[in-house]
Amino acid sequence: MAARKDIDGSASVPAFYGKELRWKREAAGRTLQETVEGSYFGATYLSEIERGQRRIPLELARHVDRLLATDGFFERRCADVHKARRVKHAEYFAHVVELEARAKEIEEWNPTLIPGPLQLEPYIRAVVHAAYPREAEETVKAKVEDRRERAWLFEDAKGPECWLVMHESILRQPIIGNAEMAEQLAHIVTVIERRRVIPQILPWNGQAHPFMMGATWLMTFDDSPPLMYTEGMYSGQVIDEPELVAQYTSAYGRLRAAALPPEDSLRMIKKAAEEYENGMYER
After folding, report:
1. pLDDT by residue (tens digit) across 243-270?
2. Which of 10, 78, 110, 270 has the fewest Cβ atoms within 10 angstroms?
3. What angle is formed at CA 124 by the lines to CA 238 and CA 255, rounded to 5 degrees?
4. What is the pTM of this model?
């Protein structure tokens, strides 16, 4: 049997309460399975919470407090997590950032925007101002820094393998100036040519496909089941129900089949970058 890995409770708020949860559970003489009985959650899910890999949902926190007689301790930790999430990324996305760091492979579809880790500052600012027009400059600057911190996903040789499918309209919509858009697309070409990202462009006049709306991530891991994440303007949802994840995975395969091959997609991005540089698009 493999040795159990210790938990560094100082690493994050989830790691802190995860370590405490394991200690309380074992002190009560309960297994993972016994602890989740009567809840809607599984033993694997609880194990990932104890290891600081997931944030404890409020419903499960209340269940654990009742079962282990912890006087509302874990419910109060949920409030701490909400505060911690506000420091950087949006509350609904904070967990996804943690998952990205552990992922072995990421498959992403985005119908309207360049994926976040590929965005440069002018593009990020345009997106942030569109969604939050009254945001203070200090907050906008923090959002730019936070998003650029995620660039390692596509640029680091140790990052996960990434397969990106983007709609052609993303290349044709100049949400920033021509020179800035040319630089943005040239940056994407540079990252792709390092062979860290496999791109596909879905043509604007392409056939119907399963992902007609909403951005979607599919993530696989070495040590846990695959997950998917879907996002709207101001909300997002992580889905880990196996049958539903399998259904989305199959649909993503059909999406890739409808998109252009990677070589043709790269040529299209290069061509669009040149056209912006030559001022062929008007805002």
Report:
1. 889 988 888 888 888 899 999 999 999 9
2. 10
3. 50
4. 0.63
Q: Which domain holds residue 23?
A: 13-86
8 domain residue, yes or no: no
* pLDDT confidence tier of residue 49, bands split at 50, 70 and 90: confident
Residues 253, 188 within the same domain: yes
- Do both 118 and 21 map to the same domain? no
**Are 129 and 81 part of one and the same domain?**
no
Residue 176 and residue 184 in contact, taking contact as beta carbons nearer than 8 Å: yes
Q: Let me know whether 21 and 58 are in one domain.
A: yes
Order of strands across the sheet with 197-202? 197-202, 161-167, 103-110, 215-221, 227-231, 236-239
User: What's the token pair of residue 132?
Assistant: 């939050």
126 in the same domain as 63: no
- CA pair distance 138, 105, nearest whole angstrom: 34
CA distance linking residue 189 with residue 185, whole number of Å: 6
